[in-house]
Design brief:
Low-confidence stretches: none
CATH architecture: 3-Layer(aba) Sandwich
Mean pLDDT: 92
Order of helices and strands: EEHHEHHEH
Strand order of the largest sheet: 1-2-3-4
Strand content: 5-15%
Helix content: 40-55%
CATH topology: Rossmann fold
Structural class: alpha/beta
Distance between the termini: 20 Å
Number of domains: 1
Number of strands: 4
Length: 150
Amino acid sequence: MLNPAFPPYYRKPIRIKIRVEEHGMKTGDYALLEHEKACLVERKGSLREVAGNCLTKDGVRRFTSQVTRLKKECKKPVLMLEGTPIDLQRATKHVPEPGLALDSFQRILFKHQITLALLPSSTVTARRALGEWVARLLINGALKNGLENE
């Protein structure tokens, strides 16, 4: 990672070792231990999940409650949606009009000032890259929000 003690143009790297632990979280799906107030990542795995969250009355209520809690719990909330723009625009049996689901989804995220990250995860290589991306996002979120010493 880029060493935060130097300006970026010095290109000074540091090595960070990460240990992954799995346990239930009240809010979000990914966090940097002891820096949960800096950045949380909520994961949505598919367009079908988005449609269930954003195109039904009960789904919108639950999803809005979820993103409201995410926003209250940390300084930098991020919602990670697995897929590519092409995948997410492709109609399926379960989501015949994907644009409607995506519009509702994006409007809720804008309203609550939640950052959206689209990340493909269809291969083992993509899933590894996704893990590294999320780790960097959480570490940089903790650094940017001045929580490096908490």
